[in-house]
């Protein structure tokens, strides 16, 4: 018997001991369902609603307690986490049966998806029992286990993976051959440790719902619906909102947002249909002011007691756009009608401060682009001290919530406060960001002073693309945005940057000469066309990266009326020396 056989034998004995615990629990406890207050967060993992996850978070103990409800248990299940929702290189907890005994244990998968027992057992079994609702399995795990095979649970998006075992499993090593009904779900496991304000007695409610939509039989659908507030509605404050989901569709409604349209339009065409339809009126693109956002697993969103988000009144558009993302991986069609939406709680008793929503990050422009075949390409948008000094009130502004946003290639987003060239505070970070899970989250309040610079950095993966991905509004283009909720309201609604186009044109000229390209890619060609014409190699990518890190930027410091503050037209390098990566010597010598 070699060393590995001995290890397997020891692990087998260990899992057998665990199995006895599970069997005893299953036989001994047929109790009532757990109390909801013990597990305040819930999500359906699979589209059919057969597997439900509940959890709670203990910050003092730095651990998460999970509870799985399997409504139809067969021969076990797999549950776990991975960086992007893959079954390869995943951190797993497994309950399986060989047809005679049941086993529970901590495991992991390698780069080929082969499951292995983990020598460090960090998932602690707490309880397992049957009830009239199904089979309950309760276990816990620390945020950070210091195990190379374990996922570190942190703030932001967590990609959960699951699988139902449809037949007996003789050996853990054969587990991947027995999976059926596998899937992925995204949640925010860690919730901010913030006290919930009490609602005042005079609160009113309004539901913004889709009108009996038949959910299309395709995996991903974004559905848009235009509605409007009552005419001559006076100013109110939104102080809370929550999801209002049609019963039975909890597993299909992935996330929702309510936008207010631009106030300069007297009318917005009625529309009820797919957001990407050619029949969608162009004017709907001007309905981008976020009022509310929800995603699976999110609880109600509360404003601080001293602030509320204004809507209604003469300076506010009465038109709202509801956008619902349906995630339908089983392609269910024809018989699922949905009227989900968001329930707004609002009051006519105005609070001390109007809240505001400000855009941080990059301007929607093709001058900011990601080369193809890149795994981790970073772009940074700046809100410089010149803008904050000019536009913010004397006491600064207080950020209490944040919603990060990119399109399909975004994989991480980070916003930080910088003072005197030093990073002093993280506003929000999501190292496992997904464009398919974008939800606002309440934060412990951050204060932005008058001389602060705010950096928003996005990482992108374009390994599946052959051409450059440019910035823009289209879903195949990219964005880098953080919508921050703050108070008191100011006229500063957008604080973003982009590289100076003149320096970008020098880059195009140099790369074309380097590649002996005789074609005249003149300034009359669009920036998108110029990026599309580049023959990408490691050097052209490196020079572009260096350009973005060091070239002057054009600041967009915009008022809510879309008029720029005076600093906006400055071309400045302010803040660009903040822990900038070293620039290749050849880039400096080229002087482009």
UniProtKB/TrEMBL annotation:
Q: Which Gene Ontology biological process is one annotated for this entry? A: dopamine catabolic process
Required co-factor(s) are: Cu(2+)
* Cellular compartment(s): Cytoplasmic vesicle, Secretory vesicle, Chromaffin granule lumen; Cytoplasmic vesicle, Secretory vesicle, Chromaffin granule membrane
What is the purpose of this protein?
Catalyzes the hydroxylation of dopamine to noradrenaline (also known as norepinephrine), and is thus vital for regulation of these neurotransmitters.
Family assignment?
Belongs to the copper type II ascorbate-dependent monooxygenase family.
How is this protein named in the record?
A: Dopamine beta-hydroxylase
Q: What InterPro entries does this protein map onto?
A: Cu2_ascorb_mOase-like_C, Cu2_ascorb_mOase_CS-1, Cu2_ascorb_mOase_CS-2, Cu2_ascorb_mOase_N, Cu2_ascorb_mOase_N_sf, Cu2_monoox_C, DBH-like, DOH_DOMON
> In this protein, which residues make up the domain named DOMON?
49-165
Q: Which GO terms describe its cellular component?
A: chromaffin granule lumen; chromaffin granule membrane; extracellular space
Species name: Erpetoichthys calabaricus (Rope fish)
Q: Which residues form a coiled coil?
A: none
Membrane-crossing residues? 6-27
Q: One Pfam annotation, family name?
A: DOMON
Metabolic or biological pathway: Catecholamine biosynthesis; (R)-noradrenaline biosynthesis; (R)-noradrenaline from dopamine: step 1/1
């Amino acid at each position: 018997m070699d060393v590995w056989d001995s290890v397997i034998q020891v692990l087998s004995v260990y899992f057998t001991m665990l199995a006895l615990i599970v069997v005893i629990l299953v036989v001994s406890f047929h109790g009532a369902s757990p109390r909801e207050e013990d597990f305040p967060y819930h999500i359906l993992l699979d589209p059919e609603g057969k597997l439900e996850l509940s959890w709670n978070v203990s910050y003092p103990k730095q651990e998460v307690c999970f509870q799985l409800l399997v409504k139809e248990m067969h021969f076990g299940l797999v549950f776990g986490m991975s960086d992007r929702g893959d079954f390869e290189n995943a951190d797993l907890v497994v309950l399986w049966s060989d047809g005679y005994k049941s086993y529970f244990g901590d495991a992991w998968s390698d780069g080929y998806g082969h499951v292995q027992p983990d020598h460090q057992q960090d998932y602690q079994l707490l309880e397992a029992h049957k009830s009239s609702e199904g089979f309950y399995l309760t276990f816990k795990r620390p945020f950070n286990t210091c195990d190379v095979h374990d996922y570190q649970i942190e703030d932001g998006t967590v990609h959960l993976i699951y699988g139902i075992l449809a037949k007996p499993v003789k050996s853990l090593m054969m587990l991947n051959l027995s999976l059926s009904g596998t899937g992925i779900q995204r949640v925010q496991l860690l919730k901010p440790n913030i006290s919930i304000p009490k609602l005042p007695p005079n609160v009113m409610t309004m539901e913004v719902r889709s009108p009996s939509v038949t959910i299309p039989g395709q995996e991903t659908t974004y559905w848009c619906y235009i509605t409007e507030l009552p005419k001559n509605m006076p100013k109110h404050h939104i102080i809370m909102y929550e999801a209002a989901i049609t019963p039975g569709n909890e597993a299909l409604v992935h996330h929702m947002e309510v936008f207010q349209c631009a106030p300069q339009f007297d009318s917005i065409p009625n529309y009820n249909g797919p957001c990407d339809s050619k029949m969608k009126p162009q004017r709907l693109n001007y309905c981008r002011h976020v009022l509310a956002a929800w995603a699976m697993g999110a609880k109600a969103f509360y404003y601080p007691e001293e602030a509320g988000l204004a809507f209604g009144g003469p300076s506010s558009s009465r038109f709202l756009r509801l956008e619902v993302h349906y995630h339908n991986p089983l392609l269910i069609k024809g018989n699922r009608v949905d009227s989900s939406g968001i329930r707004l709680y609002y009051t006519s008793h105005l609070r001390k401060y109007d809240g505001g929503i400000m855009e941080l990050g990059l301007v929607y422009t093709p001058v900011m682009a990601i080369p193809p075949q890149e795994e981790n390409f970073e772009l940074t948008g700046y809100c410089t001290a010149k803008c904050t000094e000019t536009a913010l009130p004397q006491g600064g502004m207080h950020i209490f919530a944040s919603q990060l946003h990119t399109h399909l290639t975004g994989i991480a987003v980070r916003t930080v406060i910088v003072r005197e060239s030093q990073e002093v505070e993280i506003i929000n970070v999501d190292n496992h960001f997904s464009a398919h899970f974008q939800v606002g989250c309440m934060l412990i309040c951050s204060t932005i002073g008058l001389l602060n610079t705010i950096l928003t950095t996005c990482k992108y993966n374009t390994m599946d693309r052959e051409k450059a991905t440019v910035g823009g509004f289209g879903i195949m283009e990219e964005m880098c945005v953080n919508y921050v909720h703050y108070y008191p309201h100011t006229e500063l609604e957008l604080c973003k940057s982009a590289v100076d186009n003149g320096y970008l044109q020098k880059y195009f000229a140099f790369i074309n000469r380097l590649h002996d390209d005789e074609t005249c890619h003149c300034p009359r060609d669009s920036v998108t066309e110029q990026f599309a014409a580049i023959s990408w190699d490691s050097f052209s990518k490196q020079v572009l990266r260096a350009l973005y890190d060091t070239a002057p930027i054009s600041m967009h410091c915009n008022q809510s009326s879309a008029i720029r503050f005076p600093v906006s037209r400055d071309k400045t390098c302010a803040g660009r020396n903040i822990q900038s990566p070293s620039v290749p010597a050849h880039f400096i010598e080229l002087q482009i």
